[in-house]
Design brief:
Radius of gyration: 14 Å
Number of domains: 1
Oligomer: single chain
Shape: globular
CATH topology: Recoverin, domain 1
Strand order of the largest sheet: 1-2
CATH class: Mainly Alpha
Strand content: under 5%
Structural class: mainly alpha
Number of helices: 7
Amino acid sequence: MNRQAFELMCFFLTILTCFLLFNVTYAMTRQQLKNSGKMMKKSCIPKNDVTEEMVGSIEQGKFIEERNVMCYIACVYTMTQVIKNNKLSHEAVLKQVDMMFPADMRVAVKAMAEKCKDVSKKYKDICEASYWTAKCMYDADPANFVFP
């Protein structure tokens, strides 16, 4: 199996897992959300030539300002389908929050997204736009920021 086929399979398995968990429990827990992100992480780390040390603490606010890290974040956003036509889609973010996040986190995460929705418009490059948007969302509400 070539790398592209493997990544595509991982993506579909992630989506299927999220769909099944959502249908069984009607909402994912924070831990289930984090677990579904592990597959994205495994796909995006080698694709962007980053290490666990470089990206493993993003959720705790450690944003290394390097191109590979920026593109890793864009890769994760692409896999979660919030990048449309090479731009971050605020509407897609809100839809994913409703579908995937636990009910007790939705209002807070949507508020983060609302606060940061215009950050990406400052950047033509999707990697930079993704990085600065993720950093804005962390800064807006570290307790409710979830990132693989």
